[in-house]
Design brief:
CATH architecture of the domain at 457-583: Up-down Bundle
Number of strands: 19
Shape: globular
CATH class of the domain at 457-583: Mainly Alpha
Number of helices: 19
Radius of gyration: 23 Å
Largest sheet: 7 strands, mixed
CATH superfamily of the domain at 457-583: Fumarate reductase/succinate dehydrogenase flavoprotein-like, C-terminal domain
């Protein structure tokens, strides 16, 4: 037994070291990123999941529980490099382990209040009832939770929560979750189609055909037939580029693909700006920092949150803290100037041993990206685009279904409407587990009841169109138009300075005009690389095109919502308006134009009232 290692210890060691658990070895062993049957066009999947984050892999496990179904996960990265790996704080759920006084009703109310009453309350109740079960389920799978002296997992209180209900592994909660799920996916023989950029979800004459994708290793464009497609591609924080905590892969690909099918983008204006990104570059310092005792101070040394949320202080909701920091900077009490101005987050009152035990990644990120040893001095932070409360409309939270038959969705790219106008810390990992499971079950049930209705000829035709498009855009000369990076940087300036933490009508209208001009530039932009092998220039061309559409939808939703609620703060409409805007925004894209509709918020037993902390 001396040489043996437990499965839990293996997962914990891999997560702590930041290595790719099984993934790196897995792809080295077989040397292939795509199954041979997919390359040859012989694979028809019952459930094809786009996205390998927490939602995608949890959905795959649920679908693969039906042993007669063929399930695959497609990703433009490799399975353990999703945005979910960057989540730090933990996963909320009522278990009674750390705080026996916590209740499902309390979790539901905290979520609804935190969402500024834009949450659909029936969906929130469904979520809160199941979140704690998922914490136990992950424990059974081998998740390496931080534990108490009796061996039970520990839970901590995150911003906006009334009880300690966030179970976690150090400040690497998402990293450990993704590796744990990936191990289970390998165990259950789920196919992985890796390093493949989704170009289109193909649907003709009301019938789902499958997915068109580019193999980044070869440049080949292929059609993958599927009975059902589950979109789990994550968020779109790169619309704000360096002022985001999201990875470079968060470009809203799945949302754009879904909109082209006719699925509306729900509540796109509800973008969460996390209060504590490094001022230098937007890299996130976890909310668990403040949960463990880090303080926010301005240049005068004042704990300024006493003015904005005297009861909760640093543990008020993210929108309130982010807006407080932005106000301090605007009123001259910040440190620095321009896009990199910020305030201090001070860890020096936390024992260094506790920082190493529970905030090791925060310590490391501060050293690597800001040159600051947080055990000795404060670090400069500023709000950073972190999360999208909006996403593709999920019409049935019991199944993950959308309004398009055979197309399902889960995770950050979806909108279940549990987060409303502001997500609570540690609710995102719980959401991907709860609704990833739900959507996987829903897609599997649909696949069992339906035959494949698509056609290889239709998929081949779509592939040919994309091949022609590739040749066309990559053959342009520099003199013909602006480069993709130039268009991207102009888009980012528009979004950060006109559609950021605070918004107002004139700037939003200017942003809309600037984005329309950029879309025209994009139609003739210069890509600059016509090679096929790992053509990242073409991949970025596709991604920037998606981000332009995402950005335009955000702006249209922000213009239409003439109130302030949660993450959407209008200087010209500073009050919440429940009479006119207790409803969800739905943005449709039709023939390159955007159309807005509304949908009422579902209320059950929590009547809207003023939100105070």
């Amino acid at each position: 037994m001396g040489k043996r290692i437990s499965r839990r210890s293996f997962i914990k060691g891999a997560a702590a070291a930041g290595v790719v658990l099984a993934a790196g070895s897995y792809f080295t062993w077989n040397g292939k990123n795509i199954p041979e049957a997919v390359k040859q066009g012989d694979a028809i999947y019952d459930v094809l999941i786009i996205g390998s984050g927490g939602a995608g892999m949890r959905a795959a496990l649920a679908a693969a529980a039906n042993k007669d179904l063929k399930v695959a996960v497609m990703t433009k990265l490799i399975p353990t490099r999703s945005a979910s790996t960057m989540a730090q704080g933990g996963m909320n759920g009522v278990t009674g382990v750390t705080d026996p006084a916590d209740t499902v009703e309390s979790h539901a109310f905290d979520t609804i209040k935190g969402g500024d009453y834009l949450s659909d309350q029936d969906a929130v109740e469904f979520f809160a009832e199941r979140a704690g079960k998922n914490i136990y389920e992950m424990d059974f799978m081998g998740y390496p939770y931080n534990r108490q002296s009796d061996g039970s997992f520990h839970q901590r209180k995150m911003g906006g929560s009334s009880h300690a209900r966030a179970a976690y592994f150090e400040d690497r909660a998402g990293h450990a979750m993704v590796h744990t799920l990936f191990e289970q996916c390998l165990k259950n023989d789920i196919d992985f189609i890796s390093e493949c950029q989704m170009l289109e979800i193909c649907r003709e004459e009301g019938k789902l055909q499958g997915v068109i994708a580019m193999d980044m290793r070869s440049g080949n464009i292929m059609g993958i037939p599927a009975k059902t497609v589950l979109i789990a591609t994550g968020g779109y924080g790169r619309a704000y580029w360096i002022r985001t905590s999201n990875p470079y892969s968060s470009t809203g690909d799945g949302i754009v693909a879904g909109m082209k099918l006719g699925i509306p983008f729900k509540d796109p204006e509800m973008v969460q700006f996390h209060p504590t990104g490094l001022a230098a570059n937007g890299v996130l310092l976890s909310e668990s920092s403040r949960a463990e005792g880090a303080l926010l101070v301005n240049k005068n040394g004042e704990r300024f949150m006493a003015k904005y949320a005297p009861a909760k202080m640093e543990l008020a909701t993210r929108d309130i803290v982010a807006q407080a920091i932005a106000t301090e900077i605007e009123q001259g009490r910040g440190i620095g100037e321009g896009i990199h101005a910020g305030v201090y987050m001070d860890f020096t009152k936390i024992p260094p041993s506790r920082i190493q035990e529970r905030l090791g990644q925060v310590y490391d990120l501060s050293r690597r990206f800001a040159g600051v040893d947080i055990t000795k001095e404060p670090v400069l932070i500023s709000p950073t685009c972190h999360y999208s409360m909006g996403g593709l409309e999920m019409t049935d939270f019991h199944t993950g279904a959308t309004r398009i038959p055979a197309v399902f969705t889960a995770g950050e790219c979806s909108c279940v409407s549990i987060h409303g106008a502001n997500r609570l810390g540690a609710n995102s990992l719980s959401e991907v587990l709860v609704f990833g499971h739900v959507a996987g079950d829903g897609a599997a049930a649909y696949a069992k009841e339906h035959a494949y209705e698509g056609s290889q000829d239709v998929l081949s035709g779509a592939c040919s169109k994309w091949m022609d498009h590739f040749d066309s855009v990559t053959s342009r000369t520099r003199i013909e138009g602006r480069t993709v990076p130039e268009i991207r940087d102009a888009m980012v300036d528009t979004m950060w300075f006109k559609v950021g933490v605070f918004r107002e009508e004139g700037q939003l209208q200017q942003a809309s005009q600037e984005l329309r001009a950029l879309e025209q530039d994009y139609a003739h932009c210069y890509v600059g690389d016509s090679s096929h092998v790992y053509n990242t220039a073409f991949e970025q061309y596709v991604e920037v095109g998606n981000l332009l559409q995402i950005s335009h939808a955000i702006v249209q939703g922000a213009i239409a919502r003439k109130e302030s609620r949660g993450g959407h703060s209008r200087r010209d409409y500073p009050k919440r308006d429940d009479v006119h805007f207790l409803k969800h925004t739905l943005i449709f894209q039709e023939n390159g134009k955007y159309r807005t509709e509304y949908k009422n918020v579902v209320l059950t037993k929590y009547p809207p009232k003023e939100r105070k902390y």
